[in-house]
Amino acid sequence: MNRQRSFIGFIVAGAIALLIVIASFYWFFTKSPANLIASTSEPGAAIFVSKLSPAMVSLLTNPDRLQALEREEELSKLKTSLFAKSGIDYKQDVQPWLGNEITLAITTLDIDRDPENGQQPGYLLALATKQPEKSREFVELLFSKRALSGATLAVEEYKGVKLIYDNSQPEKDLLAGAVVGEGFVLFANDPKVLKDAINNVQAPDLNLTSSPEYQKATKELPKGGLAVAFLNLPVVAKWQGLELSEQLYNSEIISLVLNPKGLLAETTFLTSSEILTPSAPLSKPVGALRYVPASVGLAISGSNLSNLAESDLAKLWRQATATIYGSGQDVVSRLAKPLVDVQKRWGINLPEDIFSWVQGEYAIALLPEKEQTTPHWIFVVEKSESVEQGIARLDAIASSNGLSINPLTIDQQKISAWTELTTAAKKSDPKEGASFSIETKVRGLHTTLGNYEIFTSDLETINEILTTKDNSLIDNPNFQDSIAAIPLPNQGYIYLDWTKSQNLLERQVPILKLAEVLGKPFFDNLRSLTVSSYGTDTRSLKGGVFFQLKNS
After folding, report:
1. How does DSSP assign 199-244, residue by residue?
2. How many CA atoms lie within 13 Å of 385's alpha carbon, on the beta-carbon side?
3. Which residues have a Cβ under 8 Å from the Cβ of 298 and sit 6 or more positions away?
4. Residues 378, 455 contacting (CB under 8 angstroms)
5. What is the pLDDT at residue 224?
6. How is 401-465 classified by DSSP, letter by letter?
7. Exposed e or buried b per residue across 388-411, where buried means at least 16 C-beta atoms within 10 angstroms of its C-beta
8. Looking at the predicted structure, is the pLDDT value of residue 447 above 90?
9. Mean pLDDT score, 320-333
10. Exposed, middle or buried: residue 301 (CB in 10 Å: 0-12, 13-18, 19+)?
11. Cα(127)–Cα(317) distance, rounded to whole angstroms?
């Protein structure tokens, strides 16, 4: 019979997990005390998790250390409401014994390995305990309350560990619990999951800590990380029912580190293949950012676009988007869709007709307009012989599309414009017949400033660049704070001003709206995020995302 064994049914597990997430959101919005760091850099509960597990997530500090930073008693109210249904008092029944680690893992894709009755993932929650006797009392209390609610309890001794679980009705959620040794309280959605966890401890070659991938990944963890997640990427893809056509990376580890200005999520993707970075690392932000206004919503900067499509970063993007969307997505189309609209209108191929001749510094930026669904764009590239040839090629493409190349002058700055002549009917006296006017529409412009060639979508944008030279993105304090959290050298930055780009992103990534609902406190306080890749290991790709918060 097919049981609906969902993790949502774990009364205590679900309550604590949700409590931690919400607590973390509020924690991020305040300046963190210097002593709020993890007591360990690696999850001790990894010994209970199979090395074939798709995913494991751990909080490496006691959630009560976060509670001191709550405002207006939101977390206290949340605790009361979450535990009220189970008859559990958090402060009295959980707080005294809860230690400095909470780990949640998907242990298996199918508990009974029977495809006939559907896929039934196994979930395991491990709570570190500092008072084993108190935690045993809690487990007894929890299951006695479930028995009073109509559940039939079963007690079983397995390899020296006492297991308690309820034989719920098929439509109900099953819960199993145990205190293992002196260190952890375990909850699972099936006693088989608890038994497997105990087997993993007693046969070390079965658990995650024996995996070479996991061992290598944990060496990449920074000091002081407060949370860590490990993903077995091929198994995650299998879990989603996907057959990836391109799979370069085998595993990923993510850690969260507090910063006075926000939160750094650092991640490392590991592979057994030799990989090459798309370009030489940069020791400082590219000079092209001097020509990007501070009003930008999205900016991408770095060097050498000529091999972007075949870079390992692009391969990672295709693997990730295939996992998320069920099919491979072009790296360029997702990063800067308005530029893709340009290539459709002009009949060009961005990688071949533009990116192929960009071998020096570059910056791509979008400036959202409230009145328009399509933002203005800027493309800045360092001058070189190949750039001169590229411009000549673009002029030829423009001419073949019926556009004219006309010189303009703005504030004594010479500009080349790609223009199109159109006609428009004018109101006239019916006796005199139809009357038309000729209009000139600008389809793109470019000019030279210093050692850079600057392309824009319209006159307003290039005028903003020329008239606000002292208000560039590279001089913006918020941008400076964001990139200060990213190690140097690196491969450049993707900088997103959340308040200016929120609407644009929601149109491109519809699932983001759901994430915003679930994490409303976080997104309401998010100012910007900055993404970069760095590191020199030829068998891993390391990078980070820095979330800058409004009241940091």
Report:
1. HHHHSGGGBGGG-HHHHHHHTTPPTT-SEEEEEEHHHHHHHTT---
2. 0
3. 336, 365, 366, 494, 495, 496, 497, 501, 504
4. yes
5. 77
6. TT-EEEEEEETTEEEEEEEEEEEEEE---GGG--EEEEEEEEEEEEEEETTEEEEESSHHHHHHH
7. eebbebbeebbeeeebeeeeeeee
8. yes
9. 47
10. buried
11. 34
> Beta strands of 235-331 (E only): which ranges?
251-259, 262-270, 298-303
What is the identity of the amino acid at 354? I
Question: How high is the pLDDT of residue 318?
Answer: 57
Examine the pLDDT at 514 and tell me if it is beyond 80: no
* Phi, psi torsion values for 149, nearest 5 degrees: -90, 0
- Report the candidate in 415, 361, 417 with the shortest Cα–Cα distance to residue 384: 361
Q: Which of 188-197, 271-280, 526-535 has the lowest mean pLDDT?
A: 271-280
Structure tokens, 161? 């560990």
Specify the residue for token string 């929601």. 506
Burial classification of residue 370, based on how many CB atoms lie within 10 Å of its CB (0-12 exposed, 13-18 middle, 19 or more buried): exposed
Encoded tokens for 28:
């991020």
Q: Phi/psi zone of residue 524: left (φ > 0), alpha (ψ -120 to 50 degrees), beta?
A: alpha
Half-sphere exposure of 548 (CA within 13 A, CB side): 20
Structure tokens at 50: 């199979």
Predicted confidence at residue 3, as pLDDT, reads: 35
What does the block give as tokens for 9?
A: 């049914």
505 CB-contact burial (10 Å; exposed 0-12 / middle 13-18 / buried 19+):
middle
Chain segment 106-156, per-residue pLDDT in tens: 898 888 777 776 678 888 999 999 999 999 999 999 888 888 877 888 999
Distances (CA, A) of 407 to 249, 404, 413, 472: 49, 10, 10, 26
Amino acid at 223: K
Higher per-residue pLDDT: 378 or 257: 378
Please report the pLDDT score of residue 341 as a whole number: 67
For residue 455, the one-letter residue type is F
The CA-CA-CA angle for residues 24, 26, 32, to 5°, reads 80
- Residue range 389-422, pLDDT digits in tens: 888 888 888 888 888 888 989 888 999 998 887 7
